[in-house]
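Entry:
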Amino acid sequence: MDRNSISRNWLIAGVKRVILLLVCHLVAGVAMAQQDSLILKNGNTIVGAIKSLESGVLIMGTDYSESDFSIKWDAIKEIYSKSRFLITTRDDKKVNGSFQSTGEGTKIRIETDEGGQLETSFEEIVSLTGVKSDFWSRASASIDLGMSLTKANSLRQFAVRSDVGYLADRWQLNFFYDDLRSDQDDVEQIKRTEWGPSFKYFLKKGWFFNSSLNFLSNTEQAIDFRTTAKVGAGKDLIHTSKTILALGAGLSYNNESFTNDAASRSSMEGYLGLEANLLDRKNFSLTSGLFVYPSFTESGRWRSDLSLDTRYDLPLNLYIKMGGTLNYDNQPAISGNETDYVFMVSVGWGL
């Protein structure tokens, strides 16, 4: 055998080794990506990669389908995963770790990142958030747009509502921005802009601390700029994969300036709030909140904010949202304008 033949055979053998090595890595990668498995109550088994659990629906990807599977949490009999998740339970306990069914599927054992073990049940687990990736695995964002044009008097209305957030092990940070503009011939423009951040720190057994800043400009109530700072605490009265009901109370500082001749004013208030989320109703969800602010420093004054939003989820992370807000102030800057409300139908996209 000549030298060229030896070199050629050596090259072919080397290429085969490289191909074999790549195939092994590929198979190992697929195996790692498909390390999660489900046994459903109807007897079917699904193997893939669990992505998340939210609103009573588990999202799972597989290598035999381009689309992710959406599986009802209460349709699962047994579950096994070596992936790492941020696991939230009904009492708002948050644990990083992996999990698997035990006791013939009646219990779930959680292996924590610290090396400990916890035992719980399907009913106690509210959400799963993947923690193997970076910042984006815990981030959320949404934006809603609404617009209408009317020939009569050239009425033009535009509204945008947006929200971004981040969920950590023990805390949650959100920021929202809402803007409503209405233009009409021979009529002064109507504007309502509201925005601000909020922060929540989770404690044990459903308790939490919360704080927020809220900034509002509203021509309907002659509010040039209102700043509201709140700090308080609350508790989840109900926290399941389908229903959340929370009660909170605390202190609020309110500072206002106006577009008319009314003098600027500030007041120290208390607040009492009730928030409710109804989830997993065949792609339909409802979110509502009611806050009442009795003033400690302005005699007889009290305010209230009511919000109600309904949402229907569409493919591609799109959704249709219908809802609004109702604001009441028994001592407004303009007499007769105690109440202001916004109603909006919009199309949105969420991350």
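Residues 3-33 form the longest helix (31 residues).
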